[in-house]
Write the structure tokens for this entry.
Amino acid sequence: MTDKHTSLHKGFRVFKALRGHTLSGMSNQELCRATGLNASAVTRIMQALIDEGLAEKRSDGRFSLSVSTLQIAQAHALEIQRAQDRINELGHRISTGLQ
């Protein structure tokens, strides 16, 4: 059985709450509401995400995902696209009888 209240789980909740807010960012209070965590917990988690290069604090005080996180997402999308291209190639070879 997994404890959903560990620091790591809480950190993932905050990280996932930032999804879709890269341009506008989120305030500490918005993150609290989105995750159900208190302000001090969100502050600690955001500092850890910033220290690891996964998030950033913007000049307006709001938080957003970092360029590094976006690069991870882009690398994943490219890998999935390569896999899809390979599947399509194999499907084409099968349907045309090529080896």
Notes: Residues 2 and 9 are 10 Å apart (CA to CA).
